[in-house]
Design a protein that fits this description.
The chain has one domain. The protein has about 240 residues and is mainly β. It starts with a helix and ends with a strand. The protein has 2 helices and 17 strands.
């Protein structure tokens, strides 16, 4: 029985007399505050003139087990077996390696050593091996997913889209919330429309080299016409 039914009903007093309750009450709005780590997805579809035609704000519910396994290695300085995006079992570890860089610009040679480390969600243009990725799959997400079901590859051919840079923004803090943004744009120059139904994030491990999926989400089907751009933004948020 809800409050309105209770107010309108007749009850029995201790003397057996029928009484009618007259209660004045004020409805109170209650809001459930979600704390801890959670994520969301923003899809922005732009036409060939870069004008926004569709925006969608969607929940991101699907960190997969690889995320927890990589977190374990980072917090314990140890290793854990994971399945990479090729389906191979590899050893995950938070490593740092030295890399020798050599390049030539206008006949001037430059070379230096640098160190690279960590699990990298940023990725260069046209590299679809890691970073934010899109696909056309519809299979329900499971905790053991290690790749998108039907990744849309980088390229200009049928069913392909150009992958621009996958970027990881600086952490932003507002009040009791901290945000981290991972973004990427995808351009369809395939000559036909492409349907996006799944998105995700994979990170690149530097040693041993491997690409490891950490998030996969099914999203509302979004049609990307030829010469249109789809911006995908993952927002990771911590609320305390």
């Amino acid at each position: 029985m809800n409050v309105d039914d209770h107010v309108k009903s007749s009850g029995q007093s201790s003397l057996g007399l029928s009484t009618r309750l007259n209660v004045n009450y004020k409805m109170q709005k209650r809001q459930v505050e979600i704390k801890g780590l959670h994520a969301s997805i923003k899809l922005t579809l732009k036409d060939k003139d870069e004008k926004t035609v569709v925006e969608k704000d969607l929940p991101a519910n699907s960190f997969v087990l690889n995320f927890m396994r990589l977190l374990y290695t980072a917090m314990t300085a140890s290793t854990h077996n994971v399945t990479d995006t090729n389906g191979s079992v590899v050893t995950a570890k938070l490593a740092k390696i030295e890399q020798h860089v050599h390049y030539e610009v206008e006949y001037k040679e430059t070379e230096y050593d640098r160190y690279i480390a960590g699990y990298q969600a940023w990725a260069p243009k046209e590299d679809d091996s890691h970073g934010v990725m899109v696909g056309g799959g519809t299979t329900t997400v499971t905790e053991e997913d290690y790749r998108l079901e039907a990744k849309i590859p980088n390229g200009l051919g049928s069913g392909q889209m150009i992958y621009l840079y996958s970027r990881v923004g600086e952490t932003q803090t507002v009040g009791n919330e901290a945000h981290l943004f991972i973004t990427r744009s995808f351009i369809n120059h395939s000559g036909d429309s492409i349907m996006v139904r799944e998105v995700g994030v994979a990170v690149m491990q530097v040693s041993p080299t491997a690409n490891i999926l950490i998030i996969r989400d099914l999203v509302e089907e979004t049609e990307v016409p030829n010469d249109y751009t789809l911006d995908v933004q993952y927002t990771l948020e911590i609320t305390v």
